[in-house]
Amino acid sequence: MKSLEQLVRPNIWSLSPYRCARNEYEGKDARAFLDANENPFNRPLNRYPDPLQRDLKEVIAQIKDVDPQNIFLGNGSDEAIDLCYRIFCIPGKDNAVSIAPSYGMYKVCADINNVEFRSVELEEDFSLNAENLLRAVSGTTKLIFLCTPNNPSGNCLADEEIEKILTNFDGIVIVDEAYNDFAFHESYRHKLDVFPNLIVLNTMSKAWGCAAIRLGMAFASKPIIDLFNKVKYPYNVNLLTQEKALDMLKRASDVERWVNMILSERETLMDAFNYLPCCEKVYPTDANFFLAKMTDATKIYDYLVNCSVITRLRSNQPLCRNCIRITIGTPEENNAILAALRKYKD
Ligand code: PMP
């Protein structure tokens, strides 16, 4: 790996971050809080929240079995994706490499930050070939984004290939594990000591059922987390989100039950799709969704919208011709899509 100083944008490396009042006085109690120009009335909403979300990180650290200093929390994991560009990539000069098809925000954030985005197609079965991906890397490649289980294909990428990339690339590798709670695959966050160039993403939006509160996580070495904290908005995770997340993190047994229900529904729904005349292929998945190749994806997508069943049309994505992505819903929702498709006529 190149040194962090070589990888980070020079203006970010030398940045003096904003020091908010709550950074300077960290205690929770004082006789008078006259430091932050807050309104003294209307507790508790009148006070700025903890900018480093320390109570929440303590709990997440225990659940995820990592040190709090290796955690960054953001407004969804989308915030962490954007921060990677803002920290590491010089606009108009550096580039980022990713797999295709994959999660759309890697490219959108590159475009927003005026960073060249190079995507390398996976194999036909959506497996990763590390040598292929590494061929797209140049001297100005700062980031490689990998997503496992991958969205929209659903499959986990092979560890052997991911590790080849972590070992042979001298920049930052982001492993997005948004869907890993459905895969039970050992998380890369346990390998931060082995790979100092690794950032692992996770979120409360999927298995934890909390997309609305916007809480994403990045796990990385302390020097990388310090960079995230330097660049983020001072109070990027609001009080309501921090409190709701703390409540939700007490409900691990509900989450386990939801995941098990989703996995069992996934099996039933995928089996049923295999018997639908309008479905040509169901791709294996490790996530809470699956990709299905249909006879005519656009027509079927529109037909489903008319039946008030919304799926995600992925047919314009590389290797996804005629594919729709179906998220596993409640048994009622899953029955609704099956009932509609059983009535579909070409
Ligand atoms: N990564 C992947 C692979 C995703 O599919 C998504 C959301 N669809 C995200 C990250 C963003 O999640 P969040 O809600 O945490 O911003």
How would you summarize this macromolecular structure in one to three sentences?
The protein has helices spanning 4-7, 10-13, 21-24, 54-64, 77-88, 105-112, 130-134, 159-168, 222-231, 239-248, 252-274, 297-306, 331-343, and strands at residues 71-74, 95-100, 116-121, 141-147, 172-176, 198-203, 216-219, 279-282, 289-294, 312-313, 323-327. The chain is an alpha/beta fold.
Fraction of residues in helices?
25-40%
Rounded radius of gyration (Å): 22 Å
Query: What small molecules does the structure contain?
Result: 4'-deoxy-4'-aminopyridoxal-5'-phosphate
**Could you tell me the number of beta strands?**
11
Strands of the biggest beta sheet: in what spatial order? Answer: 1-7-6-5-4-2-3
Indicate the structural class. alpha/beta
Helical stretch count? 13
Question: In what range is the share of β-strand residues?
Answer: 15-25%
Distance between the termini: 54 Å
- What does the largest sheet look like? 7 strands, mixed
Q: Choose one word for the global shape.
A: globular
Spell out the helices and strands N to C.
HHHHEHEHEHEHEEEHHHEEHEEH
**Low-pLDDT segments, ≥5 res:** none
